[in-house]
Amino acid sequence: MTTTHYDTLESRSPEQREAALMAALPQQLAHAQKHAPAFAAILDGIDAAAITSRKALANLPVTRKYELLERQQAARQAGGGEDVFGGFSALRFGAHMPHVFASPGTIYEPEGTRKDYWRMARAMYAAGFRPGQLIHNSFSYHFVPAGSMMETGAHALGCTVFPGGTGQTEQQVQAMAELQPAGYIGTPSFLKIIVEKAAEMKVALPTVTRALVSGEAFPPSLRDWLAARGITGYQCYASADLGLIAYETEAREGLVLDEGVIMEIVRPGTGDPVAEGEVGELVVTTLNPDYPLIRFGTGDLSAVLPGSCPTGRTNTRIKGWMGRADQTIKVRGMFVHPGQVAAIARRFPEVLKARLVVSGEMANDSMVFRVESSSTQAGLDQRIGEAIRDVTKLRGTVELVAPGSLPNDGKVIEDARSYQ
């Protein structure tokens, strides 16, 4: 497969990329400690200069979205003024921060003035957009950063943007018919609605032949539905906190990581990296100095794909979004979360992998702690059972299984109860 790339970073050797990322990592950590008060506290006592490998990085704490929200809420309640970001932003209000956005929570995110601040141009290029084109952007410009994320990426690519935003389907069709954009950016479901509305109105959209979609699932069935109508759609994975994380290429074999992030996949509820190919939570360290998130837990599940992309892009590939890592559930009136499962497993070196299965009917819950173990030592199940009660304050039975028996789906808590 032949393709062109957005820049030479995409085709450098994995060794070159890793060396560059590990050289940038201690600088980013030191910058975060100095300019982002939250990370000054989180990384207190850490020698940034010593964090030059993935092994060293894995020893740093993971910051999850709920912790970011808690720090933001505390800062606001304390009358934090312009530090509504809970100490995570290295920027303050003014010329270097043209926008502040809001995500559900409410979590506030800063936008800086750096070119392609959210690093979206790379995904657009992979989706087939080129300089000099007009792009119809139907992501929201209201509250959330999605519209601006795509617009700033398009400008960095050298494209003009029509800020369509959401809703007003007939007007969207009219604008597409009259302006004749090279393609669409937005959610895949809204593109389907627009295409159906255009057919209903008997309006042709001959120039809309490519699309970059995100924000929701893009199943093969919808991809094929669009292709049958002359639109080639690709997806990207991004967040309001981190910007672009990974993007699809014409190979359609997983998603290629962005060049500006360091990605780890950890066992849910912990900061411990899993073996390559195993499903776990995506944890991302961004090299954005304005909003320097270090080991930020996305809460999303994925896994690394072996090998490199047939397009010649050499960065790591992931399978894409595979569900949520936050599997917290309530059992007999008590919350049980993945961190507790991990805490139980850590007490026993013989435990290779653990999975808590909750079954039964509502109000009649039954907990089974399934454990892959390297040992058949007598009494191990009893000791694990005691640890379950100690950590969760609930009783559960223990089932020892052979190594490799538990599913590779990233779940450490499985809710198998019947709600009929």
UniProtKB/TrEMBL annotation:
InterPro entries: AMP-bd_C_sf, AMP-dep_synth/lig_dom, ANL_N_sf. Keywords: Ligase. GO terms for molecular function: ligase activity. Gene3D superfamilies: 3.30.300.30, N-terminal domain of ligase-like. The keyword Ligase applies. Residues 139-285 form the AMP-dependent synthetase/ligase domain. Pfam families: AMP-binding. This is Phenylacetate--CoA ligase family protein.
